[in-house]
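Attaching the record inline, Q. Sequence:
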Amino acid sequence: MKSQIKYIELKSSYNDNGPAWIGMVSFSKSGKTLYFNNTAFQSLGGSGIAGNYFDVETDDEYWISNPKKNLTDRHRFGGGTIAVEKRILPEYLKIIGRTELPKKGYELVDVDVNIPKERITALENERLEPIEFDARLHFKKPNELTIEELQFLIEDLNSNEENSIYKKSRKSIKKRRFELEQELEKR
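Structure, as predicted:
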């Protein structure tokens, strides 16, 4: 797994004063997911409000970039301490061309080096498995439907019933919905 030192700053709800780190980021095989501090990030592809990456689990926006040699990683109107991961200090000092970390504005910290691959994969697979229903469900008998299909159809019929402008169609929708609700109660 490829790794690289990056600057990471939380942008959501913080403007330019969010928590920030200089740390070792690991990349997935495809390079589409970055891992840092037991968190997974994916690119916003230019659609972010203040960030260029988002936390896969929370959708918070982050700014992730290469660390700057002149120590201007934070936005010029931002502020706050930047946490530097202890294990990468020698490499980071080489990047910025210094022998020691500046005392002001930086602190050394330990970060969680676990890579949450299994947790993120499970989350992504949940998102990839939508329950797909098609119009043919409406023609099946109630006893031929699964519980998920029954629930889907009941919700769909509720919506159709509310939006129907004709009394006759509302009546037939209500009748079908009632049949499905009875079948669902049986199970």
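Strands lie at 3-10, 20-27, 33-36, 39-43, 53-55, 61-65, 82-85, 106-109. The CA atoms of residues 8 and 64 lie 5 Å apart.

More tomorrow.
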